[in-house]
Amino acid sequence: MSEPVLVIDFDKCTGCRACEIACSLANCGEANPEKSRIRIVKVNEIAKIIPVPVVCMHCENPPCETVCPMSAIFTDPSTKSRRINEEKCIGCSACVYACPFGAIVVDRSTGYAFTCNLCNSDPVCVKFCPTEALRYINSDEVSMRLKRTRLNKYVDFIKAEAK
Amino acid sequence: MSYLYAGTILFIDLGQRKISMEPTSSYSRAYLGGRGINIRLLYDHMSPGVDPLAPSSFIVFGVGPLGGSTVSSGRTEITAKSPESGILGMSNFGGNFGGELKYAGYDHIVITGKADRPVYIWINNDQVNIKDASKIWGKDTYETQNLIRQELNDPEAKVACIGPAGENLVRFASIQSELGNGAGRTGMGTVMGSKNLKAIAVRGTKGVKLADSVEYLTIAENLQQALRENPQCQELARYGTSRNQDNMFNFIWDQAKGKPPSQYAIFTKYKPKRAGCFGCPIQCMDLYDVPGIGSGVISCALYFEFANTVLCYDAALSLECAIVCQRYGIDCISAAKILAWLMELYEKGVITPTDTDGIPMKWGSRAAIRGMLDKIVYRQGIGDILANGILHAIKKIGAGSEEYANQVKGIPMVEVWSPDTLPLLKGMALATAVSSRGDSMTARTAEIEIGAELVPLGLNGEAAGELAKSVREQAKMITGTEKAAMRQEYEGKPALVAYSEDLAILADSLSTCKNMGPFVGRPFSPEYQATLFSAGSGVKTSVDILFEFAKKVRTLERSYDIREGLTRETDTLPKQFMDKPIEKGRFTGEVLESDKFEKMKSEYYALRGWDAVTGIPTKETLERLGLSEIAQDLVKPAKLT
Fold first, then answer.
1. Domain ranges of chain A
2. B274:A45 CB<8 A
3. What CATH number has the domain spanning A4-137?
4. Can you tell me the distance from the alpha carbon of A16 to that of A10, in angstroms, rounded to the nearest whole number?
5. What pLDDT digit, counting tens, does each position of B445-477 carry?
6. pTM of the predicted protein model
């Protein structure tokens, strides 16, 4: 059966950071991008480089879970997201170094790691994304969409050649 | 710990290198935040008659309670005495700076004194440092931001800075942040320059606490949904501000200088990407990256000033000037309006190239626009005179040149306003004359007055029909008469102007975006502001209470202006706007009658609770608003110099 996944379309992101406000409000009860599970990273110097949303990629084989010395990171069976058992977490940052995306962070005010929990299968960042750069859709749909995007690029190329 | 506010006002004396703090709560209960607290801080700290460029002058940065915590809340308000007009100066910019300042723990920064060498302020949460800026002095605003981020080794630092225009004390220098956010009007960058203050860099990780975050998030979600579904917003989100302006102003551009080409059509070939402020779903700005010109973010005034104002329809030149203005850190409106004024004088034969260092001031000419811009910023030749503002330039050039200068209190008028256009919109004429800072961006009645007429003029199809209907209904609700929406009527205009000013004050005080507000049929209304403020602060606050704040702030701004020497007589338009029937176009014969105009003014003063004759806030009004302690300041005001 196909699972819903969080999909990021880089081309559509305007870098407005509405997702950061929404995430921190929903998950921490305060407006604080620093505590948002999703962050927008921008290259300030070069305008044509697009903003990049960084969020947990929900890896099938998650390095954060593997390296955790306290086995504090586990996979939530309902959403397939990574959760942190705060009773076990010692805030050592091993997961932070292991994550290739920088998507897991230790909150220095609580001392525990945090990352995207997919808001119980209803991600608030998706609701606030004005351009649909963030979507929560079925994984098989994603796969076919990517194939079609690839095809469309080829079609555009042929059309341009014909002109 | 108060919710929604960061909680602290930061005081920095650059001369003494002294830093102190005060809790925001001693001001927020009476003045809300942002523009409201800014004016109280300025009123309290700056004595009347002080030269805005003297070390003892003050400049205040402020972010309101909703700043950085909801959608479309990226505004930072700056207030100081204006070196361009000599009365209250204020301007605001968007982007990510405002939110970051609050996350660092500060709602306001009050700066005074003059540093002995170029410096910048680095605010990193609790750490506030005054750092040397000798190496970046002279750099443009884009470079400055990057150099500061490099030096601090913090790519996430948000920077607001001045460019060469501010350093050279060009009287209309701006403060810029990122690629396209500028506080342009009334010379706020000049005040920074006079203090040897190149920039403020800020990094904050503390966040904004909320009383009821669940409720707050629900309202924010409804609001962002409303913004995305609103047709006016969709138009803006899809096409940016250039097409919006085409729609709003086309019939008036036509009136001013012959029908211009569509701005949207000119610039769309460069395929801009969407850009905008913190947390805003609309992203109304356009991000350009054009080989040979460079990258930059353009919106609103930056479009029309270097196209329609100076009659330059060469997209490459126009775009170049818009980006260069931001790099130099100069108010594109005042700069372009001064260039257009010279062009008008040249066309009428009042000046010759010998008056302008050999440059013929021809409409749309590259030498006249781009060349003269450089001269102003670096104060070369005639540029040295122009850099001191339009009033100064009028004095130097003389020869009846003031008749062609469309300015109020030394501030060149925004948009298309000229003797051929402003008399058409009676509300806008009043708003321009009575504005607390000398320009009409503080009261947007134009959207109503033009909106109501889009249909008769056959513009923009169905959406225009909806807009026209809604603005008439709105006008009736506000003033009691639908006539207030009709641009040629005098009736209801004072109430419309007052209401529109209050809307702007609320947005600027709460740090939400005016452009997402109700006057253009967009949803970020006082109702949303009130519910967000109530949920976030935990203090139940109605729309009526918000408007009470706005009225109080307006009267305090007025008192500031009166204390600096503003009078009823200076609340006016240049004489070429009055009693002169329009001589061309489809509005031939329409006129702004001075007696009816004066009547509107008296009515406006009375509505505000000010003396209908002198325009000075009455003792009763000051008492009612809780401002009785300032009554004595208004008895013997200074003379405006």
1. 4-137
2. no
3. 3.30.70.20
4. 13
5. 887 888 777 655 555 566 677 777 888 888 899
6. 0.94
